[in-house]
Amino acid sequence: MLDKLGLIHPILQAPMAGVSTPQLAAAVSNAGGLGAIGIGASDLAGARRMIAETKQATDRPFNVNVFTHASPTPDPEGERAWLSAMRPLFAEFGAEPPAELRVIYQSFNDNPALLALLIEMRPAVVSFHFGLPGADAIAALQDAGITLLATATNLDETRRIKAAGIDGIVAQGIEAGGHRGLFDDTQTDPQLGTFALTRLLVARAGLPVIAAGGIMDGAGIAAALDLGAVAAQLGTAFIDCPETSAEPAHRQALRSAAGHHTCLTSVISGRPARALANRFTQATGRGFAGQPPAYPIAYDAGKALHAAAKARGETGFGAYWAGQGAPLARSLPAADLVAVLAQELRAAKA
Amino acid sequence: MLDKLGLIHPILQAPMAGVSTPQLAAAVSNAGGLGAIGIGASDLAGARRMIAETKQATDRPFNVNVFTHASPTPDPEGERAWLSAMRPLFAEFGAEPPAELRVIYQSFNDNPALLALLIEMRPAVVSFHFGLPGADAIAALQDAGITLLATATNLDETRRIKAAGIDGIVAQGIEAGGHRGLFDDTQTDPQLGTFALTRLLVARAGLPVIAAGGIMDGAGIAAALDLGAVAAQLGTAFIDCPETSAEPAHRQALRSAAGHHTCLTSVISGRPARALANRFTQATGRGFAGQPPAYPIAYDAGKALHAAAKARGETGFGAYWAGQGAPLARSLPAADLVAVLAQELRAAKA
After folding, report:
1. A211-A213-A216-A219 Cα dihedral, nearest 10 degrees
2. Are B226 and A219 a contacting pair at CB < 8 A?
3. What is the DSSP letter of B12?
4. Domain boundary assignment for chain A
5. In sequence order, which residues have a C-beta less than 8 Å from that of residue A250 and are 6 or more positions away?
6. C-alpha gyration radius of chain B
7. Is B200 close to A155, i.e. CB distance below 8 A?
């Protein structure tokens, strides 16, 4: 699969919607890895622009990631209760919670225009997070010559990915930053670590496995390959590259002690995701309890709270995603980082 | 450190009190790994017998593991509430909960006779779980020529291990079966995966690191070495060896779908531990809520419930510890398993 894509290094940059940029993806791809952009939170025009900019900056393959979650059922009463619980936090920054919450972006599965855009623009790779699209979409993308990847967090999801004819699996261990790729977040999550998950999927999946979660350097990539993965996907390792759109406070938190205290929380977006510990992740139990609205409805409230707090100089409510490897993150231009990773990998293999 | 011990393979068998036996430890040590017995749940006579039997069966080094938890403060009211919540479960098997709960075993830290026994019998290695003993005990054991290991689950614990002059660290990732080695289980546990934890401790610990959690085969051992560990510790991989004292139902559960659904629970013993999902681990939320008594007081109730259920043919309340690698466990004599692991490790390195 990597040969087909012409990758020089077995290194994928995680899509990280909101943090990755066309510049980051192109730099990684030009350096011989597989760069990626995440368009799950973009509108159609934004998605088109990001793909076009990436294409302009690299002739090499890159990955476009979309969100394939089940669209949420609005629950006005639950949403009002949530906003009401958040009111004291907004008040702390002289703000009001929004009057109501919106579905801030569509699932790829309900967005035929986005499917048409991908078929028109034909990135080398498209990857799915939070589940799978329908069989027709998969067939249409593959007919357009696009290699397809999907995230799995356990063997059951892997079996569904295999049955759908997807080309490769991103095995997302519990260490990984950002959103868990769970197909169904109402099911109990066995929270498999990268080590156990990668080895299990390599043994049982019958598809190429890309290991993800807690991999920060060439030694980690070598370990992933030893476990039988064809490549490693790194996200947190790239957050502090100058090419990302990570907020300064996100970068600062990444370099701080918070990196030793990431946690999984559904409070920010409505789905479990790993973030650097901050006031937001610690807010439950401070009169801010209950069940957040479904993803991405809760995220509308989370983003509004962050905006209100930030306007008053408080960055403790940012969605500052990061994996458990955060303390080992480096601040390097993406091309340099890929070169260092490749050199470390060679050293680990020797 | 491994050279000093004369190990042939970078393989430690996890101590697994209640599952490991002198026969298992001796078989692993004779095969060139480091076998281990866990005496944390044994009385003094039992500990002496286990060490003597192991010594009789092998001339090679082995590891004796002790529990170094903070001794619990009895809380008669909380314990009564817990027993009362458990009453319906006991009733299901025609039994009564015990009238009161005992501290079923002492911490090594409050047991000078056990320290004296170790100094008298001088196993090559002694390892600590749940924290560290006092400086005097550490000095006395080292003066007796014993190599010391301690479990760490995060960098803070690692710093304390290093400061105490311990010889090596067992980096216990979240994948690992059995009890989390947390020094203080009232603190928030960042639940670091084996991949992230091993790499972090190798980078920052300044001591030899032994990776543990989710490692099931030679490929996994190779990956651990790539991450910079000097060796790997495997527990779940050894549970189904004929030399262990694992109950038949434990072995059966290990081979079942339950292996895909391990979970961390404090319900069984009072401290978080990873077990194969069964009726006990799922009991919370079935009218069996609240805070279990402190470790090991809760374990007295847990063992009584298992005994009552088992007497009526229900094995769903056993403390069937296992790690997330459970689906990859094999059923082989320990010497054969070590030989297979070593052969797989050679193949992975080649």
Report:
1. -40
2. yes
3. E
4. 2-71+106-246+326-349
5. A19, A239, A276, A318, A320
6. 19
7. no
Q: Which of B156, B190, B325 sits opposite A262 (nearest CB)?
A: B190
User: From CA A296, how far away is CA A303, in angstroms rounded?
Assistant: 11
Question: CA-CA distance, B136 to A13, in Å (whole number)?
Answer: 50
Structure tokens at B154: 């995060």
The residue behind tokens 């039994």 is B95
Do B318 and B275 contact (CB within 8 A), yes or no?
A: no
- The token pair that represents B12 in the structure block: 């430690």
How many angstroms separate the CA atoms of A263 and B86, rounded?
31
The Cα B208–Cα B203 span in angstroms is 11
Mention every residue, 6+ apart, whose C-beta is less than 8 A from residue B76.
B100
Name the residue facing B219 among A155, A196, A226 (closest C-beta): A226
DSSP symbol at B287: T
Nearest CA in chain B to A350: B349
Quick check: A224 and B224 CB within 8 A?
no
Dihedral (C-alpha) A309, A315, A321, A324: value to the nearest 10 degrees?
-140
CA distance B214 to B221: 10
Indicate the residue type of B148: L
* Three-class SS state of A271: coil
Q: How far is CA B269 from CA A281, B250, B318, in A?
A: 29, 17, 11
Sequence-ordered alpha helix ranges (H) in A7-75: 22-30, 44-57
B65, with CB counted inside 10 A (0-12, 13-18, 19+), is buried
Closest CA to B275 of B246, B243, B244: B246
Asked if CATH classification 3.20.20.70 holds for the domain at A2-71+106-246+326-349, the reply, yes or no, is yes
**Which of B265, B236, B234 minimizes the C-alpha distance to B326?**
B236
Q: Name the DSSP class of B67.
A: E
8 Å CB contact of B199 and A219? yes
Top-level class of domain B2-71+106-246+327-349: alpha beta
Nearest C-alpha in A relative to B264: A190
CB contact under 8 A, B190 and A261: yes
Residue-level pLDDT, tens digit, chain B, 350 residues: 888 899 999 999 999 999 999 999 999 999 999 999 999 999 999 999 999 999 999 999 999 999 999 999 999 999 999 999 999 999 999 999 999 999 999 999 999 999 999 999 999 999 999 999 999 999 999 999 999 999 999 999 999 999 999 999 999 999 999 999 999 999 999 999 999 999 999 999 999 999 999 999 999 999 999 999 999 999 999 999 999 999 999 999 999 999 999 999 999 999 999 999 999 988 765 556 678 999 999 999 999 999 999 999 999 999 999 999 999 999 999 999 999 999 999 999 88
The 10 Å Cβ neighbour count of residue B225 is 23
CB contacts < 8 A, A to B, total 132
Q: Does A325 touch chain B (CB under 8 A)?
A: yes
